[in-house]
Amino acid sequence: MRVVIADDDAVVVESLRIVLDAQPDIEVAGCGTDGADAVRLAADAAPDVVLLDIQMPGMDGLAAAEQILATPRPPRVVFLTTFSDDEYIVRALSLGAAGYLIKQDVAGVASALRAVMAGRSVLEGEVLERAVALGAGGAAGASGATAEKPDLATVFPQLTDREREVVALIAEGLDNREVAAAAYMGEGTVRNHISSILAKLHLRNRTQIAVAYWRALR
Questions:
Q1: How many whole angstroms separate alpha carbon 159 and alpha carbon 174?
Q2: C-alpha 123: how far from its chain's center?
Q3: Has this prediction a pTM greater than 0.70?
Q4: Which of 86, 93, 76 is nearest to 212 (CA)?
Q5: Residue (of 176, 160, 66) closest to 115 by Cα position
Q6: CA-closest candidate to residue 125, choices 141, 149, 109
Q7: Rounded CA gap, 68 and 62, in Å?
Q8: CA torsion through residues 198, 204, 206, 210, sign
Q9: Residue 161 binned pLDDT confidence (cut-offs 50, 70, 90)
């Protein structure tokens, strides 16, 4: 896995570089200090993942992510930031970010990136709770309480029953293998369903599928 890092904090960049380069399956393909660097490196270094801070001088991480994700074959974008502001979370998810991590445990970033490469959306606990609350109008919160599940046939009439089943399982945080096991179908079939769901709902990735489900809880 090739990773590009963009953060205006030199200490954070160096810490991430050391931790990630020490992993046998991860190569740091480049480091930058702002969004413009991230856009350039995403084009030149052919990374699998771009790890972005949100607030940076000049072009910020959100503006950079928008440009990166608009390219024909974009890398995955993961935000690593000290900011868990609601507006940032909503904008990051709406752009199609594959993850949103809070800068607390740099050592845990490698495992998060592996999960992203495996097709999972990575949202840390606090961010996940707030994203659910934002999408569900407060239906779920820090206590973990959940609202009654929506009638997905009404919410997503354009999807088949099996596709709606996959949507619900993705919203629970399951990866493709776990969805396949839970729904008694092959992983290839799961991938086909996900491609169909993305096309029918005009979404970019699994994170947006989950957000669409959370919003249906309103």
A1: 19
A2: 7
A3: no
A4: 93
A5: 176
A6: 141
A7: 10
A8: negative
A9: very high
